[in-house]
Amino acid sequence: MGLFSKQLLNVVEWNENKEGILFWKWPNAEIKKGSKLIIRMGQDAIFMYNGRVEGIFEDEGEYDVESQIIPFLSTLKSFTFGFNTPLRAEVMFINTKEQLVKWGTKNAINLPAAGLPGGMPVRAFGTFACKIAEHDVLIEKMAGIQTEYGVENVKERIIASLDQLLMSWIGKEGRDIFNLQADARTIAAGIRSDLDMEMRKIGIAVTDFNIESFSYPEEIKKMQEKAAAQAMVGDVGRYQQMAAADSMSGVAGGNGKSSVAGDMVSLQMGMALGQQMVNQMKPENQAGVAQTGAAQGTQTVGGNGTIPKFCPNCGTATNGSNFCSNCGQKLI
Q: How far is CA 19 from CA 132, 150, 227, in A?
């Protein structure tokens, strides 16, 4: 390549004006007499001659190439600058800082699932961290053919391997594919180990790998929410009450004011829930229960207490029994 421009004639440096670059070749093969080398924090400078590494400089600072750099170059220790004899060498800058990268599966991964012939489509998202681990391997594999190499290049390699790695680690130990987030840390640790082994072949280490979330189809999300609601409610009777309560909002007017139908449903629900609460209350004294037993849906038995007509736990008719025939609840 040509000589330095006047502004950069005596300076060999990397300003890192682009983010996410792991290595960058200085775009000039001729180093003039009087040149300075500047190494910034988080950088290493590598001098190469005829495709061979001559010296690696890791300490940040400003150096005179002739007096402070050349004496440490393997085969160029005796090089002397002349009027028209520049040093024809390549300088490569290495970014030694760890890089954090976001990743996401390009397409949904179809995980084997019972009852789903095509599998369960799942997406995953997260972050990984990488850094240059071995200068010589990186130079041998990548630097000879590229002038720079960045995290986007690393990301492409990692994304290309992710589908198979995710399927492999999710499939281990019979994991519940509907609750993968619970095993996200274990899955991520296994994937990081495999990716690190693969990427070290080009001199790059994968120092961290995280799965922030798994994404399921909308239909699966709705089924999970419904199952969770049913589990929270605990029995069909109460689930029906919740469904009726939800329907109350559905019959309300669109302007935020209740419609006549909504008011009627609200009134009926309020009366029904109030009646159920009364039925579930324990009698504080025999006289009060005897007087109100008929009105509250109970029958009096001797002087020992009252038996409700319906079990307060599950709603089954009691038929005068002391214990519920359905759930075994003690009634008096």
A: 15, 8, 46
Task: Tell me, yes or no, whether 53 and 71 share the same domain.
Answer: yes
- b/e per residue 290-313 (b: at least 16 CB within 10 A): eeebeeeebebeeeeebbbbbbbb
Summarize pLDDT for 269-289 with one digit per residue, the tens: 555 555 555 565 545 444 444
Mean pLDDT of 79-99: 88
Structural domain boundaries, residue 189: 100-219
Q: Are 33 and 107 in contact (CB under 8 A)?
A: no
* 60 and 128 belong to one structural domain: no
Average pLDDT over residues 133-152: 85
Q: Per the structure, how many domains does the chain have?
A: 2
Name the strand (E) or helix (H) holding 271.
helix 260-280
Contacts of 230 (CB under 8 A, 6+ apart): 239
125 and 210 in a single domain? The answer is: yes
C-alpha dist (Å) from residue 226 to 3, 23, 239, 278, 314: 71, 51, 10, 29, 21
Quote the CA–CA distance of 105 and 125 in Å, as a whole number.
7
Pairing of strands 21-25, 90-95: antiparallel
